[in-house]
Amino acid sequence: MSKSMYYYLANAWKKPYEKEHAALMRQRLIAWRNEPTITKLERPTRLNRARALGYKAKQGIIVVRVKVRKGGMRKQRPISGRRPKRMGVNAITVGKSLRLIAEERAQNRYPDLVVLGSYYVGEDGIHKWYEVILVDPNNPSITNDKDYSWLLNSASKYGRPNRGLTYAGKKARGIAKGRGLKNTHNHKWKKKEKERKLRKGHEANRHVRYFNTSK
Question: In 3-state terms, the chain is what percent helix, strand and coil (to 5)?
């Protein structure tokens, strides 16, 4: 059975820093470090991921590469005195992923465009880079394309990353769907709802533990 080009592209991106791809990624990262935070691209770096998210090489669709710093928040040391353990400077992280931060920055730079999705393209010791796909909802080539009707007809199409409506935002909120998301916030509430319908109490509840004789 013959395999498509996208199959080999996906395999190459599974380990992008090894074997014959190491030198290429090194050259890319050296060049990306000197670029501004948001860079508009002519074409996506990972064509297989871009096409999977809905990218098409047509007018009205642009791709930007966003640079995001790694690590926790850069909290300023407070002026007023307190114990060192109460300073609240180290080991404080934001409640969202760097991928979502990259989408928010791209949306703030292009407020008239709609964020379609994003994907990872590289990292070094200081930064991570993501590519964000944006769609122009007023371009005729986009409005006449049925594949984007779900996005254009939505009342909440503008500012999707800022309200957690992209996949990265839903994953941070615990309401994404898919494998590996079993213990998220949404799953726990659904489990509790099922227990209420079956009139089951939690096993840690004292009343249930001592007075439930249904077993």
Answer: 40, 15, 45
Same domain, 61 and 165: yes
Total count of residues recorded for the chain: 215
Work out the burial of residue 70: count CB atoms within 10 Å of its CB; fewer than 13 is exposed, 13-18 middle, 19 or more buried. Answer: exposed
In one-letter notation, the amino acid at residue 137 is: P
Residue span of the structural domain in which 186 resides: 177-215
- How far CA 103 is from CA of 132, 161, 205, in Å, comes to 6, 6, 43
Question: In this structure, are 127 and 109 located in the same domain?
Answer: yes
Question: CA 132 to CA 40: how far, in whole Å?
Answer: 10
pLDDT of 54: 94
Residue 136 forms part of a structural domain: yes
Residue at token pair 């990353």: 161
- For the chain, 215 residues long, the average pLDDT of each consecutive 10-residue run is 88 89 93 96 95 95 97 88 88 89 96 96 96 96 93 87 92 77 68 76 57 51
- What's the confidence (pLDDT) of residue 120? 97
Residues 69 and 51 in one domain: yes
Three-state SS string over 34-84 comes to CCCCEEEECCCCCHHHHHHHCCCCCCCEEEEEEEEECCCCCCCCCCCCCCH
